[in-house]
């Protein structure tokens, strides 16, 4: 079995380093951001943002799922997810924010509009059954491996609010970040 060259570790000095090479990923796990304004970027902040980003998103999903038994699960979860995107934007510059939005394959306005539509329809749905708006119901289902699973219909409303907040934050990053980058480039040009 031949090991492809990967820089200084390409020739194992011991059995331990040979095992290390077998676990080497084929591609970069944190691809660098491309930004025209390179001044003021710190490696520590970029690496911290890239490591914390998935953790903060999981925590926001936790807030979303747990918060439906209390007030504001979708809103607080959406704000935490939005802050994760803002952290990535601050750490990586404008292209980092644009790259994140491009990976979603959906425009932030569509995400916010879809979240608002879902929240409004969920809020008004009980009126079809003769109940006041924003009435929630508890649904129970028996799942073979998990057991009994209880879902509250207000979770759908919270998901709509979550998507609305994340969409608004992503749109703010896209629109305000473009202006900040433009101003930074304009300030840099006369200095040259």
TrEMBL record:
It comes from Pseudonocardia asaccharolytica DSM 44247 = NBRC 16224. Keywords: Cell membrane, Membrane, Transmembrane, Transmembrane helix. The chain crosses the membrane at residues 51-69, 75-91, 111-131, 151-173. It is a multi-pass membrane protein. It is found in: Cell membrane. The lineage of its organism: Bacteria, Bacillati, Actinomycetota, Actinomycetes, Pseudonocardiales. Residues 1-35 are annotated as: Disordered. This is Na+/H+ antiporter MnhB subunit-related protein domain-containing protein. Residues 44-170 form the Na+/H+ antiporter MnhB subunit-related protein domain. Belongs to the CPA3 antiporters (TC 2.A.63) subunit B family. GO terms for cellular component: plasma membrane.
């Amino acid at each position: 079995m031949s090991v492809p060259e990967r820089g200084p570790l390409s020739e194992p000095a011991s059995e331990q380093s040979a095992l290390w090479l077998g676990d080497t990923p084929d591609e970069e796990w944190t691809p660098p951001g491309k930004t025209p304004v390179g001044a003021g970027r710190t490696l520590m902040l970029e690496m911290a943002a890239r490591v914390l980003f998935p953790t903060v998103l999981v925590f926001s999903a936790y807030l979303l799922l747990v918060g439906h038994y209390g007030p504001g699960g979708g809103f607080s979860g959406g704000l935490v997810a939005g802050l994760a995107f803002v952290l990535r934007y601050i750490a990586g510059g404008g292209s980092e924010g644009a790259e994140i939005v491009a990976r979603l394959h959906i425009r932030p306005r569509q995400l916010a509009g879809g979240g608002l539509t879902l929240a409004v329809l969920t809020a008004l749905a009980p009126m079809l059954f003769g109940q006041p708006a924003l009435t929630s119901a508890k649904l129970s289902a028996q799942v073979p491996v998990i057991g009994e699973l209880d879902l509250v219909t207000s979770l759908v409303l919270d998901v709509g609010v979550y998507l609305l907040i994340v969409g608004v934050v992503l749109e703010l990053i896209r629109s305000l970040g473009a202006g900040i980058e433009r101003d930074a480039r304009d300030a840099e040009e006369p200095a040259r």
